[in-house]
Amino acid sequence: MFSFKDYIPLLTEEKKPARGILHLPHPSESAFHNRRGAVGSTLSKIQNVINGKAPLTRKIDDRMSFQAIRDEQGRIGVKYKGQGATYNFSPEDIKKQHSEKPYIAGPLLNLHKHIHKILPEGPGEYQGGYLSSLNDRTEEDGKIGHKPNTIRYSVDKNSTEGKKLAKAPISVVVHSRIDASGKASPLEAGALKEHPDVHVMSHVVSDEERKIPAASKRKALEHIAAAKKLAKDQSTNHHEGHEETLLRYANSTVDTGEKPSAKGYTKFLQQYHQKKIDKVKTDKAKAQKTETMRAAINHVNDNLDKFDKTFEIHHHIHQATQAVANTLSKTAHGGYSHHIDGQEAAGEGFVSGGMKFVPRAFTEANRKRSAEFKAAKEQKSVL
Q1: How far apart are CA 28 and CA 365, in angstroms?
Q2: Cα 351 from Cα 57, distance rounded (Å)
Q3: Sequence-separated (6 or more) residues with CB below 8 Å from residue 204
Q4: Helix or strand or coil: residue 23?
Q5: Please, how many CA atoms are within 13 Å of residue 99, restricted to the half-sphere of its CB?
Q6: Which helix (H) or strand (E) holds 82?
Q7: What pTM does this model have?
Q8: H/E/C letters for each residue in 312-370?
Q9: What pLDDT score was predicted for residue 10?
Q10: For 375, phi and psi rounded to 5 degrees?
Q11: Edge to edge, what strands does the sheet with 350-352 contain?
């Protein structure tokens, strides 16, 4: 158990260190690290998932990520996940801190009212996702479901799970326990208490659910072997100063459908830096940023073969990850069906070894939704 004094910095300091899970990388991102051994470590983690040697949990597409704490005095505090957020120990705290953000205040008020009913006894801190309230759920074709964010999750309304979802005031997933140092670890099955007021979507993947068919396993292992071979003698020095833009470029190809390459990356750098140049006003600032652009592009042109190999490594890690994620989406759905914009879809994916295994179909749908939301916001600002 943790002593309340361990949480004093969390509750009193103006600047707080990040606690819990703030970002989970995709395995393929390791191909862009400026750290030798990053790729090998990632490939080992993928193999551990394939062989059933690593803990595996479902990633639930929540409405709002939150953290909850029970202190040594038994007080319950809740906050949305994010740096700068502080714990609210009463409805008054929530209203004071989030009076202008009802989309945060509403879920937090519901959480503060109900989350203590399922938390383990004694002091502890937890992280999870808020999914829905009673008003957010609807029935379709004999199933009851909710759509916290991009995915609509549905389950037979007459099933035990469906009956719980139909009656509980709130639905959540609580996936992590946060220790006194702020590190998060997966919350084990059975750790939470049962209560009819709180429907809990299970994040734990059972041994039976995680079995991967031979064909998918073989495909993943072939890509792992190819990535290992390419990475064996590959230096990472050429990545220095390019880690962020390499990742931005790779993410942009999800929308364009192109296969990442060194030539494609140079085009991206041209556009990326030109936007920065166009934003500044003085000739001096424009000249400085133009020189930065030239240096970045020249560096890639001087190391085309190395960057192409980097993208090949990224490709094979991505393909291995997809082979695992797509297969698990069919077997480890937790009893729920998933729909995006009315079409049957995969779930958000899985988490293991501090990385997320996300099916490409979800990534594409989520990026499309984000782009539409951004466009609508920009249109509203113009009006």
Answers
A1: 19
A2: 5
A3: 57, 58, 186, 188, 189
A4: coil
A5: 5
A6: none
A7: 0.85
A8: HHHHHHHHHHHHHHHHHHHHCCCCCEEEECCEECCCCCEEECCEEECCHHHHHHHHHHH
A9: 41
A10: -65, -40
A11: 57-58, 350-352, 355-357
pLDDT of residue 174: 97
- Residue position matching structure tokens 């502890």: 124
Contact assessment for residue 178 and residue 20, using Cβ atoms and an 8 Å cutoff: yes
Between strands 138-140 and 76-80, the pairing is: unpaired
In angstroms, the first-to-last Cα distance of the chain is 54
The pLDDT, as a whole number, for residue 20 is 74
Backbone angles phi, psi at 271, to 5 degrees: -70, -40
Residue type, 331: T
Burial 195-221 (b: 16+ CB within 10 A, else e): eeebbbbbbbbeeebbebeeebbebbb
Q: Where do we find the tokens 């937090």?
A: 108
What's the pLDDT at 380? 61
- Convert the pLDDT of each residue in 335-370 to its tens digit: 999 999 888 888 999 999 999 999 877 877 777 766
Contact 320, 224 (CB under 8 A): yes
Quickly list DSSP for 110-137. Answer: HHHHHGGGTSPSSSEEEEEEEEEEGGG-
Residues of the chain below pLDDT 70: 1-18, 21-22, 369-383
Helix (H, G, I), strand (E, B) or coil at 10: helix
5, HSE (Cβ side, Cα atoms, 13 Å):
0
Asked if 169 and 134 count as a contact pair (C-beta separation under 8 A), the reply is yes
Per-residue pLDDT of 287-301, as tens digits, reads: 999 999 999 999 999
Look up tokens 């190819």; give the residue: 226
Q: In one letter, which amino acid is 383?
A: L
Q: Would you tell me the crossing angle of helices 38-50 and 214-231 to the nearest 10 degrees?
A: 170
- Which residue in the block uniquely carries the two structure tokens 């990356």? 265
